[in-house]
Amino acid sequence: MSKSSRQGAAADAGGELTFEKALAELEKVVASMEGGELSLEQALAAHKRGLELAKFCQRRLEDAQQQIQVLEGEVLKPLAAASAADADDGE
After folding, report:
1. Which of 11-15, 36-40, 70-74 has the lowest mean pLDDT?
2. Which member of 38, 53, 68, 80 has the greatest number of CB atoms within 10 A?
3. Vertex 68, ends 62 and 74: CA angle to 5°?
4. Which of 54, 76, 50 has its CA nearest to residue 65?
5. Which of 53, 49, 66, 67 is nearest to 19 (CA)?
6. CA neighbours within 13 Å on the CB side: how many for 61?
7. Domain ranges within the chain, ordered by starting residue
8. What is the model's pLDDT at position 37?
9. CB within 8 A of 77, min separation 6: which ones?
């Protein structure tokens, strides 16, 4: 079993993968790759796991952003558009 597979199994063994667990594992994967100690096969496996973790984190962030928009009543606007709308309301 490769190091990245063991890391993935360890994260999954602790329960459901959360954003925080995925980010922590991704940081470990990056550190191991930056260390330059991995064989080509290990580096490829680590790269694959890193991509999986990055995609997972990106999806979780997008989900959180959608939830915020719902909670805010989709009032989120670019700052310039919000300023223009406020100026129009004042006339």
Report:
1. 11-15
2. 53
3. 105
4. 76
5. 53
6. 9
7. 3-90
8. 94
9. 85
What is the C-alpha separation between 13 and 16, in angstroms, rounded?
Answer: 8
CA angle 9, 65, 54 (to 5 degrees): 30
Structure tokens that stand for 54 in this block = 């990055």
Alpha-carbon span 62 to 82, nearest angstrom: 22
Alpha carbon 4 to chain centroid, angstroms: 17
Are the CB atoms for 34 and 77 separated by under 8 Å?
A: no
For the domain 3-90, what is the CATH code?
1.10.287.1040
Q: What's the pLDDT score for residue 80?
A: 65
Asked if 2 and 41 touch (Cβ cutoff 8 Å), the reply is yes
pTM higher than the cut 0.70: no
Q: In the block, which residue shows the tokens 């993935």?
A: 8
Torsion of CA 24, 26, 32, 38, to 10 degrees: 140
